[in-house]
């Protein structure tokens, strides 16, 4: 037997905003992907490295699912989250939602999904599920992964049961919009100022503008950080540009959010933030290209140049967020 919900199965560039778009359009709320990302205060930065990691990781957004929680709180959406250690209960939760006509969001490890182009362990991947039959589950993932796709029920169970960094216990979630939904336009300034506050005042030096500055110093040592620079440096650059970030480590998405917001909120601070994040997006793409080139050439000068650009980025993004933080005044 096949059970499939009629949905708008548009994919997008980033996994969590793709899933949120599917769930919210089913509720009659159609927002652009940059607007979803921005209203969820999704932009951030982390330089992540530890002894058990093969290579450092540069992250450009808040931790998985925080964006969803932020968006639900800001827009007054009812967010129901279910987690369990039981695979049987986890499947029952999903089936109950779909049988009732509601698509459901899932957080899982992308490595096990049949359709994934370049399998890599990532426990913070998010998809929307809208149907199933005796063999397969029907999902919506990013455009890069195929948009409306299917994966075997066995692979889905493995992906949901996986453990590791950023993984959740068979997490599934639903969003419900209230009848008197507050205007998304009214949530733009609170979402931006909350994002700016976190970015400007990180609790540790690995986060926010301080993290970018730190990355600028440490990236120069990356050739010594790996036994396989021809593998690890291009892979790091690929993750910055292609792995669901929308390009430029999520800065393209935030730039476009600020452009859309500037049409709704007349403010010189907004225009300044948009101008600076347009510059930042270009610099992040340049940084990724220099890191990839260093891996291919083995020339430390490429990493020195990347470090210099990251130093500029720390300043540019700090100035952007300082301007944007003034929106609440």
From TrEMBL:
Pfam families: BtrH_N, DUF4872
Source organism, top-level taxon: Bacteria
Stretches assigned to the DUF4872 domain: 155-324
Name of the protein in question: BtrH N-terminal domain-containing protein
Matching InterPro entries: BtrH_N, DUF4872
Record-annotated Butirosin biosynthesis protein H N-terminal domain positions: 14-142
């Amino acid at each position: 037997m096949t059970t499939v919900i009629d949905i708008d199965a548009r994919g997008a560039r980033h996994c969590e905003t793709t899933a949120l778009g599917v769930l919210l359009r089913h509720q009659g709320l159609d927002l652009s992907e940059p607007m979803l990302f921005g209203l969820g205060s999704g932009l951030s930065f982390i330089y992540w490295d530890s002894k058990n990691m093969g290579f450092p990781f540069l992250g450009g957004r808040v931790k998985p699912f925080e964006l969803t929680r932020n968006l639900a709180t800001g827009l007054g959406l009812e967010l129901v989250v279910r987690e369990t250690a039981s695979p049987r209960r986890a499947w029952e939760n999903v089936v109950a939602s779909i049988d009732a006509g509601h698509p459901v969001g899932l957080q899982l490890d992308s490595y096990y999904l049949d359709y994934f182009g370049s399998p890599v362990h990532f426990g913070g991947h998010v998809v929307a599920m809208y149907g199933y039959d005796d063999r397969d589950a029907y999902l919506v993932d990013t455009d890069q992964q195929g948009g409306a796709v299917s994966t075997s029920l066995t692979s889905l169970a493995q992906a949901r049961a996986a453990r590791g960094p950023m993984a959740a216990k068979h997490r599934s979630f639903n969003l419900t919009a209230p009848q008197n939904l507050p205007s998304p336009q009214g949530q733009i300034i609170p979402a931006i100022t909350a994002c700016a506050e976190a970015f400007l005042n990180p609790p540790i030096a690995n986060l926010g503008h301080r993290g970018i500055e730190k990355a600028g110093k440490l990236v120069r040592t990356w050739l010594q950080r790996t036994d396989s620079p021809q593998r690890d440096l291009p892979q790091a650059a690929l993750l910055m540009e292609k792995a669901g970030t929308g390009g430029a480590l999520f800065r393209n998405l935030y730039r476009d959010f600020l452009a859309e917001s500037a049409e709704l909120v007349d403010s010189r601070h907004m225009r300044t933030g948009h101008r600076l994040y347009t510059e930042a997006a270009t610099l992040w793409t340049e940084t990724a290209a220099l890191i990839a080139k260093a891996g291919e050439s083995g020339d430390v000068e490429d990493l020195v140049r990347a470090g210099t650009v990251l130093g500029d980025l720390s300043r540019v993004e700090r100035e952007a967020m300082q301007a944007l933080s003034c929106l609440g005044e």
